[in-house]
Amino acid sequence: MVNIGLFAAYMTDSFIPATPSRADYLDNGPREMTWLSAEAPIALFETWLATAGESEPNDPNAMSLATVDAGGMPDVRIVLLKGLSADGFVFYTNGKSAKGQQLSDTGRAALCFHWKSCKRQVRVRGRVTPVSAATSDAYFAQRARGSRIGAWASDQSQPAASRDAMVDDVEAIEARFADADVPRPAHWHGWCVAPEAIEFWQDGAFRLHDRILFTRTDEGGWTKNRLYP
């Protein structure tokens, strides 16, 4: 059980920002509200992503990827969105990594985009399937040569003896492909999260946030509901 007194003292002495004051809330200016009438979640996401691209300091396509291991323990890490269509949200990774194994075992994942500059968040939940080999090949070919070398050299999620050992692995792969193009390793490919639910969240004063949840219907359309913040 947490000692509330000690917890409060820790909060006071830490670098955690204070709760916003009334002046802080009222000093943020008007909020954009027209999005609340949107009926197409993928199109709305594209609009929000484009807006974030104008204001986020870097990586507006960064997203938290949540998975669950065989024991039911959740994992979460940041990856980059690299494709978006009516089919879903696409990212790429090493299929032999911890997340790759978890994706293969469960076939499910959740995503979260948080754009601090816009005070917006989008959450996605759905089933996950590998993208086609042709799609993975096409994306891999666009990557910088060093990144392609790294995909071969990294035994992702496995223990490494040292940084020097990792550098040695990279140099060995560089030598292997010294006079050739670097093909995609079979274990490195894309995954597509087909959304079953997409929730849009926008910050509001005094925690009166706007939360709109789109849920996929059996017919392939969407239902739309407002949620309490």
Number of strands: 9
Task: Please report which band the strand proportion falls in: under 5%, 5-15%, 15-25%, 25-35%, 35-45% or over 45%.
Answer: 25-35%
SSE topology string: HHHEEEEHEEHHHEEE
Low-pLDDT stretches: none
List the keywords.
single chain, 31% helix, alpha+beta, 9-stranded antiparallel sheet, Pnp Oxidase, Chain A, globular, 9 strands
Describe the protein's architecture and organization.
It is a single chain. With 229 residues, the chain is an alpha+beta fold. The protein has a domain at 30-142 and 186-227: Roll (Pnp Oxidase, Chain A), CATH 2.30.110. Helices cover 31% and strands 31% of the residues. It has 7 helices and 9 strands; from the N terminus they run H-H-H-E-E-E-E-H-E-E-H-H-H-E-E-E. The chain has helices at residues 4-13, 22-26, 41-55, 98-106, 133-142, 145-153, 163-176, and strands at 62-68, 74-80, 83-85, 88-94, 108-115, 120-130, 188-202, 210-216, 222-227. Strands 1, 2, 3, 4, 5, 6, 7, 8 and 9 form a 9-stranded antiparallel sheet that branches. A hairpin with a 4-residue loop joins strand 5 (108-115) and strand 6 (120-130). The mean pLDDT is 90.
